[in-house]
Design a protein that fits this description.
DNA recombination, zinc-finger, 3-stranded antiparallel sheet, 46% helix, EC 2.3.2.27, Aspartate Aminotransferase, domain 1, ubl conjugation pathway, Nse1_RING_C4HC3-type, Arc Repressor Mutant, subunit A, 3 domains
Length: 231
């Protein structure tokens, strides 16, 4: 049965845009006095279906953290942000997405992002661009680490149809989970790419650890050091 508690949980996600998995589960336990998370989400999604929307989980490629977000089941373009942001800021965001997705390492430096201001149709100062990017990072559309911008977990959750429609030829698929991957570990012997979190889980059951495509060995120690560096 869909109750007021369901509405409160839905409103919480809508207000924040995206909720960390731990916060979502804590809120559900508080509202419903139980831990039947899957049942609660199923009941809410049944209501959202007629609106072409759903709540889904998504994992951050950089931190491995899981989040809950409301996503559209139809094509979403970042032009849907036009109520919040000016045309020039949306143009900058599109260019940053393009730079990251077409980069070989799945990220782009903050310097390059700011320099994109000079290529915009309308002038945007670097001060305004910096403030805008800080906000975009805070809302998890992008992730900033060590001076590099990555595709944020919220963009993965809400803009995947747009990414697939716009950058289909530049997108890669994780060799393990078969989902789109923007940032991860590339096999040194073939072109296979894997999410770091997928590779970590794979390492727990596969001994010795091998690339699922070419069967070449992957050093577990390298994975452990890499994961440690990301947090």
């Amino acid at each position: 049965m869909y109750t007021e508690s369901h509405k409160i949980f839905l409103q919480a996600i809508m207000q924040e845009g995206i909720l960390h998995d731990e916060d979502s589960k804590e809120l559900i336990i508080t509202l419903f006095d139980n831990k039947q998370v899957k049942n609660i989400i199923y009941e809410i999604n049944a209501k959202l279906q007629s609106l072409n929307m759903m709540i889904k989980t998504v994992t951050c490629e950089i931190t491995g953290d899981t989040y809950w977000a409301i996503t559209s089941t139809i094509l979403q373009d970042i032009s849907s942000f036009q109520i919040q942001f000016s045309k020039v800021k949306l143009e900058l965001l599109r260019k940053i997405f393009s730079e990251i997705i077409t980069a070989t390492n799945g990220c782009v430096s903050s310097t390059i992002c700011l320099n994109l201001c000079t290529s915009l149709d309308t002038k945007l100062s670097k001060i305004d661009a910096t403030e805008f990017l800080d906000y975009i990072v805070d809302k998890k559309w992008l992730l900033l680490k060590n001076g590099q911008y990555y595709i944020g977990v919220r963009s993965i959750a809400e803009l995947m149809p747009y990414f697939k429609a716009t950058y289909d030829n530049s997108l890669h698929t994780c060799n393990l989970c078969k989902e789109v991957i923007f940032f991860g570990q590339r096999c040194t012997h073939c072109e296979a790419m894997m999410h770091i979190t997928c590779l970590k889980k794979y390492a727990e059951v596969m001994h010795p650890l091998q690339c699922a495509t070419c069967k070449s060995c992957i050093e577990v120690d390298v994975i452990g050091i890499y994961l440690l560096d990301l947090h």
